[in-house]
Amino acid sequence: MHKKNIALSFIAALILASSMVSVSAAVRIVTLTVRGMTCGGCATRVEEALKSTNGVQEVHVSYERGRAVIKYEDQKVTAEKLREVIQSIGFFCEVKR
Fold this sequence. Notes:
This protein has 97 residues and is of the alpha+beta class. It has a single domain (25-95), classed as Alpha-Beta Plaits. The protein contains 3 helices and 4 strands, in the order αβαββαβ. Strands 2-3-1-4 form a 4-stranded antiparallel beta sheet. The radius of gyration is 22 Å and the shape is elongated. The mean pLDDT is 84.
């Protein structure tokens, strides 16, 4: 009987501990250097492509500065994927360090 109570207590503790651990996406901000933008229309095109990407929360693109600042959920999208999205619409892109 004593071993059964210990086993049940252990199982209950495991269940409780696993329910307390939640996997939540970390919100990150990345700055990407974007080359090839020549006007506000280019910046708008990049911004729209990024905003339509799952996991992207906020985007600011400047063709004058040649960069895109993106706020995103790292469980849904990666910085590499964001770079690929920009390159897929015809611009060169790299992560700014």
